[in-house]
Specification:
alpha/beta; eight-stranded parallel beta barrel; 13 helices; binds flavin-adenine dinucleotide
Length: 291
Amino acid sequence: MKLSEILTQDKLSLSFEVFPPKTDTAFESVKHATEEIAKLCPSFMSVTYGAGGGTSKYTLDIAKNIKANYGVPTLAHLTCVSSTKQTVREKIEAMRDAGIENVMALRGDLTPELMASDRSQWDYRHAIDLVLELKSCRADFCVGGACYPEIHPESATQKDDIKYLKEKVDAGCDFLTTQMFFDNNLLYNFLYKIREAGITVPIIPGIMPITNGNQIDRAIKLSGSFVPQRFKSIVDKFGSSPDAMKQAGIAYATDQIIDLFANGIKNVHVYSMNKPDVAQAIQNNLSDILG
Ligand code: FAD
């Protein structure tokens, strides 16, 4: 099922993100975790491509398994930075052959080595190049793109960021998923600005439940997200007590999601990080709200 159909439904729903294993030996345990999450029947599951510590090797296998054996619609991520056209086209063919209908078109992060290399030689320099590739191939993919309520770290201004985002959407993004954020007002402000810029596709807010004290530093380093004092106090108070931090982190994420639903958002994407217990706890907290 295409996400464009799911996202225009009138009911509230949650989707979950998983990432592929870092090593071959971890494959079975990651597969098991993704299956446990699939059993929760989310509106869809996304499978990252080389992000969150996983490799890109198993993205397709995991997405295929979830879709075929659990009937959960999947969104397979794909990055293009520094890849050749031939490699990307092979990946796209493989996705099409596997029956994948939804693809998240991403540039990928620039490592210091990539930053130092001659970018003029690259076949793909921005995610928009991949969006165009996906939209011009023989498969009729529903294509997603990333967006940044607190601006992408490489952008000089939010105005520039939104200008490029608009171009990416016009190239063929059917929906956008946001970077994590811990203050919903940042999202509402961003939504106002992008709607004003003429971006009308569905926006899926991405919520990251922080369930251990160490995770917050890593998450902020990766995303550059602002951490409100209310959440800092929670981490200061409970960060060194694993069970308490997990409970508080799940409660904070639940609170963010309830506020989003109350303010007109229909689908929230949870960065569930291969943790079925966390995904389940959030879903249980929302059982009557989700209906
Ligand atoms: P782009 O849309 O290309 O934007 C990157 C920067 O370039 C921005 O500053 C933008 O304003 C600017 N820009 C865009 N177009 C132009 C242009 N034409 N000219 C000049 N500047 C331009 N990474 C992974 O490796 N694997 C994943 O699975 C993954 N999943 C993600 C999912 C989500 C929801 C998000 C938010 C991020 C994800 N990432 C993933 C990280 C992502 O790859 C990085 O954030 C990366 O730095 C930017 O990717 P992008 O697709 O947003 O790039």
